[in-house]
Design goal:
Shape: rod-shaped
CATH superfamily of the largest domain: PAS domain
Distance between the termini: 51 Å
Order of helices and strands: HHHEEHEEEHHHEHEEHEEHEEE
Structural class: alpha+beta
Largest sheet: 5 strands, antiparallel
CATH class of the largest domain: Alpha Beta
CATH topology of the largest domain: Beta-Lactamase
Radius of gyration: 47 Å
């Protein structure tokens, strides 16, 4: 699922708000899918390893036990034959077992005498239960014992037609070695299976999250102004629901925004004609102010200030509606930043505003629309005049004095007002937002569009604007404009 191309105009990048530390620690969907596959592969491999090891151990031990029983039974028959030829002692039978048949660990009980075939493997190593079962009960049996830290199977057979019994020790070292090899193989197999699970989980996570990433990029494009961005339809029955829902939402949003933009534009245009008539009438009355009584003059003053404020509001609405409609075009030209700011301040409402420029910033060029950037400076100065104590200060610096060449400049407008609370710094650039003055109507209060226009114009220049506290610690706000720049060739 991919994003359909949407327009060729450049829009400012949309940067989501930074996440707090708690949100950063949360695992994303991709990591959770990878974790599920990894744990699943690990648990499956461990389960198979335990089951396989259990079967292997049972099979190997059973095979060894069967071999031990068969061997001990054969050797017991040899002892019986030897005792028939020489019934006085079991020594001859033991010698024949060791020398002729190579039996390593035999033990014979005959006429209450124990005859071992190897030192250390005598009656002292036999469990009493095993001895009683074979000698007293006359039943063949076997047990596992440990002799000198070595596990052994002891198999015992009663000797028929004689007062005797035959025992033989069989080492389990070979079984342990075999099982150790099996354990090592199973551990390696579990590690390989887990590694494959990680690879498969990583692939599955990328495949599963990719549609969400495409949708996120599409949402980012819409937030940046590309309202005609859509997701391409897919034949996948699950993803098609996401694509259709997203496209329907985007289409509805586009229609709503375009309708609102047309409404604002139409209203602004319809208001211009009666507003011009009203303004002309006020001017006519203002020229005959001296002929009016004092109360009429005061009312005329209020009417004139409100008409001027209304004119500014209508012009701002018209400009914002043109920006929303994409009808605004930038007239880009090269501007010497410091000289341009001085000219913009000279024609604003406070032409005596002091300007401090760093030596290097004096020779910095910016590419921009003169009228729009001048409007940005004027609006920020008006904001400082109305809400910041009426004594703004401007400074222009390069973004990083250590960098060569200069890549950007910052224009700071500082005031001595109450400042902007942190909770309102993300809101004051929204339309019709006036921060702490909202809800208190006064002739000096703006309509809440000045800073919104500042943000729109700066974004059209691929720059950014924000507000912070003054650097000197005094009360007041510091509005920052950052624009791409380059040094003027000498």
């Amino acid at each position: 699922m991919t994003v359909a191309a949407a327009g060729s105009e450049a829009f400012a990048d949309f940067s989501p708000a930074p996440l707090d530390k708690t949100e950063r620690r949360k695992w994303g969907l991709r990591r959770r899918i990878l974790l599920i596959f990894t744990l699943g592969a690990l648990m499956l491999s461990m389960f198979l390893a335990f089951v396989t090891y259990g079967f292997a151990r049972s099979s190997v031990v059973q095979q060894r036990d069967n071999d031990a029983r068969a061997t001990a039974r054969n050797h017991a028959s040899i002892v019986v034959e030897a005792l028939r030829s020489n019934p006085t002692t079991a020594q001859q039978a033991m010698t024949r077992l060791v020398e002729d048949f190579g039996v390593e660990r035999p033990l014979v009980w005959y006429n209450d005498v124990w005859t071992p075939g190897r030192t250390g493997y005598d009656q002292n190593q036999l469990p009493q239960d095993l001895v009683d079962r074979i000698i007293d009960e006359g039943v063949a049996a076997r047990m596992i014992v440990t002799v000198e830290d070595e596990p052994n199977i002891v198999v015992g057979y009663p000797l028929p037609t004689t007062q005797g019994a035959y025992f033989e020790f069989f080492s389990l070292d070979e079984v342990d070695n075999t099982l150790q090899s099996v354990r090592l193989s199973l551990v390696l197999g579990a590690l390989i299976t887990t590694a494959l699970g990680v690879l498969v989980g990583s692939f599955a996570a990328r495949r599963a999250v990719r549609p969400l990433g495409v949708a996120a990029h599409a949402a980012k494009a819409i937030a940046g102004g590309r309202l005609d961005t859509r997701l391409e339809l897919t034949e996948d029955p699950d993803l098609s629901v996401l694509a259709n829902s997203f496209n329907e939402m985007a289409a509805a949003l586009q229609r709503r925004i375009e309708r609102d933009a047309r409404f604002a534009s139409d209203v602004s245009h319809e208001l211009r004609s009666p507003l011009m008539t009203l303004s002309a009438s006020v001017e006519v009355m203002d020229k005959r102010r001296d002929e009016m009584p004092e109360r009429a003059q005061a009312a005329l003053g209020l009417l004139k200030s409100d008409v001027i404020r209304f004119q500014g509001l209508v012009e701002d609405l018209l400009e914002i509606s043109r920006i929303d409609a994409g009808a605004e075009r930038l007239h880009i030209e090269e501007l010497i930043a410091a000289e341009f700011v001085r000219q913009a301040v000279a024609v604003c409402s406070m032409p005596q505003t002091p300007i401090a420029v760093s030596p290097r910033a004096e020779m910095v060029l910016i590419n921009g629309d003169r009228r729009r950037l001048a409007r940005v400076i004027a609006n920020l100065i008006d904001n400082a005049r109305l809400h910041g104590g009426g004594s703004p200060e401007i400074s222009i610096t390069e973004i990083d004095p250590a960098e060569r060449p200069v890549s950007a400049i910052q224009i700071a407008i500082e005031d001595h007002g109450p400042g902007v609370p942190e909770s309102e710094r993300g809101l004051i650039f929204e339309r019709f937002a006036r921060g702490g003055v909202a809800g208190r109507r006064a002739s000096s209060d703006g309509a809440g569009l000045g800073l919104a226009l500042v943000d729109e114009h700066v974004r059209l220049h691929d720059g950014r604007v924000w507000v912070e506290d003054r650097l000197d610690g005094e009360p007041g706000a510091r509005f920052m404009i950052e624009l791409a720049a380059e040094e003027l060739e000498q």
